[in-house]
UniProtKB/TrEMBL annotation:
Domain of life the protein comes from: Bacteria
InterPro entries linked to this entry: Antitoxin_Phd/YefM, YefM-like_sf
Official protein name in the record: Antitoxin
Function: Antitoxin component of a type II toxin-antitoxin (TA) system.
Family of this protein: Belongs to the phD/YefM antitoxin family.
Length: 81
């Protein structure tokens, strides 16, 4: 895969983007460190984004979930009867 310096990428961006669109991805580096990978929109990203912390612990929903604390909620909004 082609690796280009950021200055080179700035100077030749149009042709680099055209090449990437044709299936020739490239990497832009800054100070010798790879920063971004440019790929065609037609290529699929193979990594699945990870949702940190979402549903990491098994949990269950109580059978009375729809009516839990119903009396307290009603008294809060309607006042005590």
């Amino acid at each position: 895969m082609k690796i280009v310096n950021i200055r080179e990428a700035q100077e030749h961006l149009s042709s680099l983007v055209e090449d990437a669109a044709k299936g020739k991805p490239f990497i832009i580096e800054m100070s010798g460190k790879p920063m971004v990978k440019v790929i065609s929109m037609d290529e699929t990203v193979t990594t699945i984004p990870r949702r940190l912390g979402f549903m990491m612990v098994p949990m269950s929903i109580p059978d009375d979930f729809a009516t839990m604390e119903q009396d307290d909620i009603e008294s809060t909004f309607e006042g005590d009867k």
